[in-house]
Amino acid sequence: MLRSVQTGAVTSSSRDAAAPHVVRMTPEQVAVLEAEFNKMKTLHETDLELLAAEMALSEKDVKAWYTHRIASWRRSQGLSDCFGII
């Protein structure tokens, strides 16, 4: 089952900032995302919506996973993980 966990201590300087949102994905969800990533490295908006709905995740969570995964893949290929940022 999918669980959302918020982490981070609240201090006087961080009260205004939102706590990071961490989604714990099941091994099955990660396997589906990895399989999709191996098919195509970038997701079209429609594919993102369908994939998120299929796995009962938010589009934001799927997009965040893809962003981290593509950065990791680029580093493993010896490329900059700052794709598109100059």
UniProtKB/TrEMBL annotation:
Residues 1-21 are annotated as: Disordered. GO terms for molecular function: DNA binding. GO terms for biological process: cell differentiation; regulation of transcription by RNA polymerase II. Residues 26-77 bind DNA. One of its GO terms (cellular component) is nucleus. Residues 1-15 have a biased composition (Polar residues). The keyword GTP-binding does not apply. Residues 24-76 form the Homeobox domain. Keywords: Developmental protein, DNA-binding, Homeobox, Nucleus, Repressor, Transcription, Transcription regulation. The keyword Nucleotidyltransferase does not apply. InterPro entries: HD, Homeodomain-like_sf, HOPX. PROSITE patterns: HOMEOBOX_2. Coiled coil: none annotated. Its main location: nucleus. It is found in: Nucleus. Pfam families: Homeodomain. This is Homeodomain-only protein. The lineage of its organism: Eukaryota, Metazoa, Ecdysozoa, Arthropoda, Hexapoda.
